[in-house]
Amino acid sequence: MQTNELLDALALDATPKPRSEIKTLLAFAVVGGLLVAMIGVVLTFGLRPDFWEAVVQPPFWIKAGMTCATLLIALAITSTLARPEGKPGQGIWLIVLPFVIVAALALFELSFASPDQRMALWLGSTGHPYPLAISSYSVPVFAVLVLAMRQFAPTRLRLAGFAVGLAAGAVGAGAYVLHCQEDSMTFVASWYGLAMLIPAAVGALLGPRLLRW
Amino acid sequence: MLAGLDGDAAAHRAVLAALSVRLRAYFSRRMGTGAADVEDVVQDALIAIHTRRTTYDRTQPFAPWVFAIARYKMIDHFRKNRIGRASVPIDDVDDLFTDDESDAATAPMDLARLLATLPDKQRETIRLTRIDGLSVTEVAARTGLSESDVKVSVHRGLKTLMGKFGGGNPHADQ
Q: Which ipTM value was assigned to this complex?
């Protein structure tokens, strides 16, 4: 085909485009994914039995805050990287902030605990921590975010995959807050952190493959 | 570009036409290959600019966006071609062992040789749609290309073949 014919064909297809398609699509993907993950957590693990007491306590909101902050920062990076010329810039380091704050709270908590309490603070009191199970609630939103990103034009595929994975991980961990009865900061810093970083690592690993266009 | 984003076809065509000139210069300077190769990447980039125009942020400068896409498509082209060259010798070995006396054997061989003259994307899309008989949608799903990209590649490839071997309308058989 001659380039001129191609130009004619493309001009025929010049439908109007909305201004903020990237942000709208990502927002829909995340809200939908969060609802699915929350329903999933409630149906499988169940709401924590003391939910209505816990909801007025700080640990609940620290967990919700950590996952929400991670989600919002990861989404901001994702929407920047959805554009071909998008560079993450200095702002990308904001992403460590939720992790650092919770880690600081955990160290503070550990410094006041007796040595034999520390293990319980770390592993929790309701059995084994399951970071992989928490991560599994990220799978639907991860898939939807990848599909959304494929409509766009990311050029830094590994970093974009990481950002998508981290956003998905934050959604999964955020939904798990509904069930999680562990209120120790040490537990949250370790296992919530891990549960969000596993999907992020998967995203970074698969990004170049999944996000190609 | 802004008028094009709002659906003005004439403005959209004018922008793409102007860009094709800039892109041709950009790629010829960097690729160091033949004009046909450059033109392929120009067309790939134009298609990408068109299909992904929603990712252009109207508050940002236009050129960095365009050349980010151009650069990505150029790298993509290099990668595809490297993979393509590495796989060619295996096809040739197969051809060497086919029975020359038999028409049934030489027909696919000629076909393979003809197709081998095309760029990888065109060869693959033609093979999948015209020889394996898949639909454009299936090919798009299998190769990860967009549907319009598949259609354009097939059309472009057939046109090249027709131009080389006798002319005529490539879609006369439809």
A: 0.81
